[in-house]
Amino acid sequence: MITLPLAYLLSGGWLHIGPPYIYIDIDPVLLHLGPLAIRWYGLMYVVAILVGLWVIKGYTTRKGIDQDMVYRILWWCIAAGLIGGRLYFVIQQPNLVDGYLMQPQRILATWEGGMAFYGAIFLVIPTLIWRARVERINPLVLIDAGVLFGAAGQIFGRIGNLINGDIIGYPSTLPWSTVYQNPNSWACFDPSTCNVPVQPAAGYELLVNLVVLGLMLYLAHRVRRPGILMLVYLFSYTISQFLIFFTRANDIVSFLGINAGLKQAQWTSLVVFIFLLPLTYWVLRHSKPVPDGEVAATYGIPQKPKAALETRVLTEDTSKVPAEAEESTDDALTKRADTAADEPSSTFSSEIAEDPATGEKPVNPEQMTAAESPTATEGESSTEADKNEAINDLPAVPQNKRNQEKV
């Protein structure tokens, strides 16, 4: 077998490109850390997420979606993608009852292989719509960012498929056919596909993903109508899946009693394609181009009235001040009353001593009535009476107000 020396050296002996085929000798397990196995496929998922975030950063910034919001939405979408992709794979298996429903722990055994990307799409898009409503942004703008993220990340997922050998095409003699040689490869679990040249179905999907990503990046800088990137991605994915699965060695199934020699993913592609036709009409009719100078994420989406919210908060804060001031005033008055009761009068003592010359106690002038006062006159008495009567005629002052006036 003739190999290309450069490719052989760069791959560490894992990849042999030479006549007549492409030979892959890669262990799906990258390294072992005790009982933990680090797999190439899992590493590709991490790389896909990081690259996807890098690709959409400029797009989300232009559309008015800040990075904090991106990360708040990201974790929900990762969970939805993993759950949806795994569940959709499980329900397609011919041994669904015996292999999974009777052994539910196998549903979580993703290390055994099996993720269906259609399932991720079916669960992630509703998740994006829900998060868009929570964040008060246009759902179509957020979905456009989501499919751009998916188109970039999907490339690395296909690299993981090529390494795993879990996407197998029909036997082929084409010069670009792949031959899996590593005994731990998924292809070698079946002797009929181990060391046998097969169609590189995962490689075909990888090339399609690169073309679709390039097209979407081009449109992302030129299209102002939200939802167009979503339609381009979904149409591209459904059409490519329908065609590529003619090269994949998957089981042929019937749908609604119709046996047309199609696989499960092809039936799904047909259903999704039919659904996309009215969706396209709805997007073109209801999604309007965003005018220059407007923020695409919030354009046409009602936002919370910030001014009214701030006024309400200030009103609630100031409404607490009178009550707190009244409590402080009452406390101060109580303390002053207690202090006055404990301390003797600064002018007269509580016990007035007798006069040693006469043997009589001096009279406190403040305790003398107007009649007893030696300087009191009839006019003064009537004046004091008039004052008292006028004071009694005044309206009563609330107790708390009197307390505040005393303070």
Automatic annotation (TrEMBL):
Pfam families listed in its UniProt record: LGT
GO biological process annotation, one example: lipoprotein biosynthetic process
EC numbers for this chain: 2.5.1.145
Listed transmembrane segments: 38-57, 69-91, 111-130, 137-156, 201-220, 227-246, 266-284
Cellular compartment(s): Cell membrane
GO cellular component: plasma membrane
Polar residues bias (residue ranges): 366-382
Primary location: membrane
Binding site for a 1,2-diacyl-sn-glycero-3-phospho-(1'-sn-glycerol): R158
Key words, A-Z: Cell membrane, Membrane, Transferase, Transmembrane, Transmembrane helix
Metabolic or biological pathway, per its Swiss-Prot or TrEMBL entry: Protein modification; lipoprotein biosynthesis (diacylglyceryl transfer)
Root EC class: transferase
Source organism superkingdom: Bacteria
Membrane topology: Multi-pass membrane protein
InterPro entries: Lgt
Gene Ontology molecular functions: phosphatidylglycerol-prolipoprotein diacylglyceryl transferase activity
Role noted for this protein: Catalyzes the transfer of the diacylglyceryl group from phosphatidylglycerol to the sulfhydryl group of the N-terminal cysteine of a prolipoprotein, the first step in the formation of mature lipoproteins.
Similarity-based family: Belongs to the Lgt family.
HAMAP family: Lgt
Name of the molecule in the record: Phosphatidylglycerol--prolipoprotein diacylglyceryl transferase
Organism: Dictyobacter alpinus
